[in-house]
Specification:
The complex is a heterotrimer of chains A (358), B (338) and C (280). With 358 residues, chain A is of the alpha+beta class. In chain A, 26% of the residues lie in helices and 36% in strands. In chain A, helix 2 packs parallel to helix 4. Chain B contains 15 helices and no strands. Chain B is flat and about 75 Å long. In chain C, helix 1 packs across helix 11 and helix 10 (227-235) crosses helix 11. Chain C is globular. Chain C has helices at 3-34, 67-98, 104-115, 119-133, 139-163, 167-176, 180-191, 193-209, 212-217, 227-235, 243-278, and strands at 39-40, 43-44. The chains are: A alpha+beta (358), B mainly alpha (338), C mainly alpha (280). Chains A and C meet through strand 6 and helix 2 of A and helix 6 and helix 7 of C.
């Protein structure tokens, strides 16, 4: 099923939950809504679910406007952060509750519940109450309950954030696999950019109720359209430096006090002559080199595979991912090479990209 | 209160390309949802209408009339021609009016200070500073007067105070020469009215103060002990400031309760002994309107007394709602109706 | 511990024991008197079981209803009041806590205001309502008035409990396909069982103990009497009070409350405390 949001807004008096969201979700697509808490991603999801009524705009399922359709008539399944299992019912009763409401015959109910339970690998837990299950098991029951109706749209509201890190990894893979196998259109709300990037076909980044970007993960990573997206996506986050881009002898230079880097002309020309602009570069695109910009190491934080080092360049500072075998120490002076093929430029006023906005 | 204004706002304004029929489905859905809400409420609304709204309307008409048993059925009290402010002239002209007013103030003020505030606080502080189980035990005992049928509870007090040789107190007081063996309620009616009511009222304050004291972070108490504060200093500088709001709540709430309650006084002294010795405002209203003690139900006149209490009560309640931030108790629903 | 410390630790107990003494003594006398020919102070003048003969034959003479009739009346009033208050309050409390409809806020402030309304005022007006409905001097009328009086408290108590139920659970049920009414009955009510229990206990005890309302709207110790009315009639009779029988009947009335109380004291204490937050 396709989903389409048109100028969708939700306001409570002056409080804005979602502001004019336009977005298409293709049949069978897995879309993540990504953003910090309070950005409107859950509000939007709840409008899709039919729990909140839009203040303005339309929600279409396969071109049909569903604004006034009750949640139960939307044929959706939803998984919540708190699992939202019914504490007084067993796992079996929880999973089969949607069927019970549809007055499904007992035999069929059992068969379908069994099928879902097998899929979720919780067949042996069906007689237990939620309080007797671990967090991961509860989330599997919740997933089972969402799937049993064979919904045309699956909604996830931060389903993994209450789980511990290891389990989160397992469940992440399982949900992704399940979604592909079932081919059901899915919307997944999360504040964890790794989750969004790894699971989704497309990621919608939101901030303060507004849609900031909506694109596939790699595009989001390589071609961030706003300063916010650039800073929010990627870990450790992108470095930002205030620079001025000037053309000298046919080359484009990004300059500030104590910093001078030549940038490729296709990128440089879009930022040149605009006065102060913001240069963005990811930590993995900066290396310890023989020639380049020199700076002083402020702190070294070992991450295991890499060291995250903070280097002061004049008044600015950048994060660099470097090889632990280099044995860098605090206070040491280093020379940094910038892989300028990957630099981004942003307008400091509008905070929009100078490279990717049409 | 912007967040509430969404109640008044409608659904989605129609866009030009909106499919037709959308508006009607919106109105239909809203109608259905309101009907659902009112369906949940209707039994409560029915009962509240029958036993709150209609009686209130009746009483506000009654105060203007002279309806009593003697003219019941003949006086058309609902007709404005029969209305006057005669009842109030009668109340303020009554020679016992100052006495009853004084009684009411005395009763409320003394019970409030001695029991609802002081005793309740004392018990709360003491029971939270001794062994947990023992503290719990004492609080349960204090709750008993509230849960005992008032008829039985008052019976105990009457027996406590009755004359020798039956009275329990006289068994102790007569040998000591303090009492001559007469009925102690006759001798000191206010003492017993206040203690009997106070012990019921105190349990309310006690329970609320206790939970407030137990909610004070342990670090706070520890810190004050580490700083070398005495128990009294801890109470004054740590406990009292932390339970300011519960104290205010209990005092306002109980003032209102005491002002309007009369059941225990009615059972214990019925306003006596003698003329109006312990008659308080609410009891006067009851006596006039509903008790044929004086051979006549004066509904109009009694209502006039009662309505003065209504005015005090409503005024107090609205201040009370403001002080305790009524608005914050009302959270907005997090599901829109369909 | 030094002697001084020991004395210091004992002081709270001494004060507490002294303050609860009237309550303990009162109850002691009640039990003593019900098994005594008569009492002088806290002394019994002789043990007897005859005070309890009311269980077999009508106490206080043939003209009055038997104790079982009165107990039955009280029980019917208390139980029907409990059931109705619990159902009506949990319906209304749910709507006020969870549903969005015009008038929600005014209804809420209204119930709070009603709670502060002097009962004497309402009693006068209700007298006319009951007469008009033909319910004066009937158990049904008495029961309905008591239900009405208990509602503001019940609605607020239940609203408080519903406020704490997870929204996600309710959303999940709506998505699963339940109507609001089924959500209320199958999902939400089972999760507020402690609240329902607390309200039921309060309602039952206040119904069982009630004196003022039955006293006002029924006549004397007739066939419509409840235990409190019945008892008070013989306590304040002009003829010499048969204290032994009166206390035995009183103890008889107290037993269900005491049993309730023993099993639910924990819950009751915490609900009373929670009342401060709920604004009751």
């Amino acid at each position: 099923m396709k989903v389409k949001l048109e100028n969708l807004s939700k306001r409570w008096g002056k409080v804005v939950g979602a502001d004019c969201i336009n977005l298409d979700i293709g049949d069978g697509e897995f879309v993540a809504f990504l953003g910090p808490s309070g950005c409107g991603k859950t509000t939007t999801l709840l409008m899709v679910a039919g729990i909140y009524k839009p203040t303005e705009g339309y929600i279409r399922f396969d071109d049909r406007v569903v604004n006034y359709l009750a949640p139960k008539d939307r044929n959706i399944g939803m998984v919540f952060q708190s699992y939202a299992l019914y504490p007084h019912m067993t796992a079996f009763q929880n999973i089969s509750y949607p069927l019970k409401l549809q007055k499904t015959p007992k035999e069929e109910m059992k068969k379908r519940a069994q099928k879902v339970a097998d899929m979720m690998d919780i067949g042996h837990l069906m007689d237990r109450k939620p309080a007797q299950l671990s967090g991961g098991q509860q989330q599997r029951v919740a997933l089972g309950r969402a799937l049993i109706k064979e919904p045309q749209l699956l909604l996830f509201d931060e389903p993994l954030s209450n789980l511990d890190a290891r389990l989160r990894l397992t469940m992440r893979a399982e949900i992704k696999r399940l979604q592909v196998d079932l081919g059901v259109t899915s919307v997944y709300v999360t504040h964890d950019q790794v989750e969004a990037m790894t699971m989704a076909d497309r990621v919608a980044v939101m901030k303060e109720g507004k849609l900031q970007a909506y694109s596939p993960p790699d595009e989001l990573y390589d071609q961030p359209r706003t300063l916010f997206v650039a800073g929010f996506v990627g870990s450790p986050p992108m470095n930002f430096l205030d620079v001025e881009v000037v053309r000298e002898n046919g080359d484009y230079h990004a300059r500030r006090k104590g910093f001078d880097a030549v940038v490729p002309s296709d990128r440089g020309e879009k930022a040149a002559g605009k006065g102060n602009v913001i240069l963005g570069i990811r930590p993995e695109n900066i290396t310890i080199a023989n020639v380049g910009v020199s700076g002083e190491i402020y702190v070294v934080e070992p991450l295991g595979r890499d060291d995250l080092i903070t280097v002061h360049i004049g008044e600015a500072s950048v994060h660099v991912l470097s090889d632990p075998t280099l044995g860098l120490r605090m206070g040491q002076t280093v020379t940094l090479g910038f892989n300028t093929h990957k630099v981004q430029f942003f307008d400091p006023q509008t905070e929009k990209s100078l490279l990717w906005m049409d | 209160m912007n967040r509430t204004s969404r109640l008044e706002r409608g659904g989605t304004p129609p866009l030009s390309h909106a499919p037709s029929g959308e508006e009607t489905s919106s109105i239909g859905a809203r109608m259905r949802s309101r009907l659902e809400a009112y369906g949940f409420l209707s039994p409560a609304v029915l009962l509240v209408t029958l036993f709150f709204f209609i009686p209130v309307i009746i009483i506000f008409i009654l105060i203007l009339s002279d309806l009593k048993s003697a003219n019941f059925g003949t006086l058309q009290w609902w007709l404005p021609v029969n209305w006057s402010l005669e009842n109030y002239a009668k109340i303020f002209g009554n020679k016992f009016f100052p006495k009853i007013l004084g009684n009411t103030f005395f009763y409320v003020a003394v019970t409030l200070t001695l029991f609802i505030f002081s005793s309740a606080l004392l018990i709360a502080v003491l029971t939270t500073h001794i062994n947990r189980r023992a503290g719990f035990f004492f609080r349960v005992l204090w709750l008993l007067p509230r849960l005992t049928p008032s008829v039985i509870y008052i019976m105990m007090w009457q027996r406590m105070a009755s004359r020798a040789p039956h009275g329990i107190l006289n068994q102790l007081l007569v040998p000591l020469g303090i009492s001559t063996g007469g009925d102690l309620i006759q001798a000191a009616p206010w003492l017993f009215v206040i203690i009997a009511n106070g012990m019921i009222g105190a349990s309310f304050g006690m329970v609320i103060f206790t939970s407030a004291i137990e909610a004070i972070p342990k670090d706070f108490m520890m810190a004050s002990k580490v700083d070398g504060a005495s128990t009294w200093q801890t109470i004054r500088h740590v406990i009292l400031p932390s339970i300011k709001w519960p104290i205010l709540f209990v005092i306002t709430y109980q003032t209102l309760s005491l002002l309007t309650s009369f059941e225990q006084i009615m059972l214990l002294t019925d306003g006596g002994p003698g003329l109006y010795k312990t008659e308080v405002w609410a009891l006067t209203a009851y006596h006039r309107a509903l008790s044929n003690y004086f051979g006549n139900n004066q509904w109009g006149y009694g209502s006039a007394w009662a309505v003065i209490l209504v005015i005090i009560g409503v005024a107090a309640a609205s201040i009370y709602m403001r002080v305790f931030k009524f608005d914050e108790l009302v959270q907005e629903p997090k599901i829109d109706l369909l | 511990m030094t002697l001084k410390q020991k004395i210091g630790a004992a002081i709270p107990y001494v004060i507490l024991v002294i303050t609860v003494l009237p309550i303990v003594v009162g109850y002691f006398w009640l039990v003593l008197s019900s098994f005594s020919v008569s009492t002088e102070g806290l002394r019994s003048t002789g043990f007897t079981l005859s005070n309890w003969s009311f269980l077999r034959e009508p106490p206080f003479g043939r003209g009055y209803p038997s104790i079982w009739r009165v107990t039955f009346n009280t029980f019917v009033v208390a139980i029907s009041m409990t059931l109705t208050v619990v159902i009506v309050s949990s319906l209304a409390g749910y709507a006020l806590s969870r549903l969005n409809f015009p008038g929600r806020k005014s209804f809420l402030s209204l119930t709070l205001l009603l709670h502060a309304f002097p009962s004497v005022t309402l009693l006068i007006g209700i007298y006319f309502v009951l007469r008009a409905l033909g319910l004066y001097n009937t158990l049904l009328g008495v029961g309905m008035v008591m239900i009405g009086f208990e509602l503001p408290f019940g609605i607020w108590l239940m609203k408080g409990f519903f406020d704490n139920v997870s929204w996600d659970m309710e959303r999940a049920a709506l998505i699963d396909g339940a109507s609001r009414f089924r959500v209320w009955g199958e999902i939400i009510l089972p999760t507020v069982k402690p609240g329902l229990a607390a309200l039921a206990i309060f309602a039952f005890i206040s119904g069982w103990n009630a004196w003022l309302i039955p006293r006002t709207f029924t006549i004397g110790a007739g066939q419509q009497a409840t235990l409190s009315v019945f008892l008070n009639n013989f306590r304040s009779d002009t003829v010499a009070v048969q204290w032994g029988t009166v206390t035995a009947v009183g103890l008889f009335q107290l037993v269900p409350v005491a049993i309730f109380f023993i099993f639910t004291q924990d819950l009751l204490l915490s609900i009373y405390a929670g009342g401060a937050k709920g604004g009751t």
